[in-house]
Amino acid sequence: MSEKMPRRKLAYLRLAVTARCNLRCLYCRPPDRDHETDVLSSEELVRFAILAARCGLHKVRLTGGEPLLRSDIVEIVRRLSSDEMIADLSLTTNGTMLTRLAPELREAGLRRVNIGLPALDPEVYRRVTRNGRVEDALAGLEAALEVGFSPVKINVVVVRGVNEDQAVPLAGLTRRLPLEVRFIEYMPFLEGSEHPRERLVPADEILAALGKLGPLEPLERPRGPATARLYRVAGHRGTIGLITPHTDPFCHSCNRVRLTAQGRLRACLIDGGERDVLGAIRAGLDLPTMERLLRWASEMKPALHSGVFAGCMHRIGG
Questions:
Q1: Fold (topology level) of 12-316
Q2: pTM of the predicted structure, to 2 decimals
């Protein structure tokens, strides 16, 4: 385990509402993982998030798997968005189901979304997702913009030899659309699989390629903890972000904690401690117990991750 930092204030909960997904992205999920079931009920998920908010985690992101596969996702959003202690509620999705659900989610109180979009080329998208249609994801992106989600962010995990040639066309979306297209350095959670560490494309290499679009102006990062280095191409409506867990880790400013789809509290995405809290949730989680769990998570956060990637992303929650 990496060296720990002194206990820090947590402010951000990533809540994995399911491990199920309609895609099989090669950097996220084994191709034969077909029998996932939802472990936590909507009542348990909502109670956990509300108690966390009472402890200062006022920012909540719903993740998966694909959270829109839950039949109760709109109700989960409605209940969380109505809680006065949750100041910022967002959702990460692959976008393929947003065409139908975007209006309901917006009406329920959701204000912003992140959409995973690894490619614009249909064949590259199919290869990365193993069974997806880029047309469905792009229709979801259009629906997100139409209903007024803001900001809409595009997440692009870049894998060498697979989709690095998609960086420029994806960043080109910012010319006419008010998006933040974020390129994420590949994290090999499926170690020993078809895509080992050699598939990493460093952020500076991506940035150099994006220079084909025109001069890139660095932007000031928002106040508080921030993960992305931000840029704007001259004349473009949107922005470009680079997320650098390998080449420029941001562990020192990380204030987030995760609840996995199996009911495990995880202090760090990459290499933090993990603790089974399903029993505590099922026993009727109360505020003092939540305070103790979050104190533990804060103490477990590393000063700098070790680079050892354990588990599957679809179960952890991105």
A1: TIM Barrel (3.20.20)
A2: 0.92
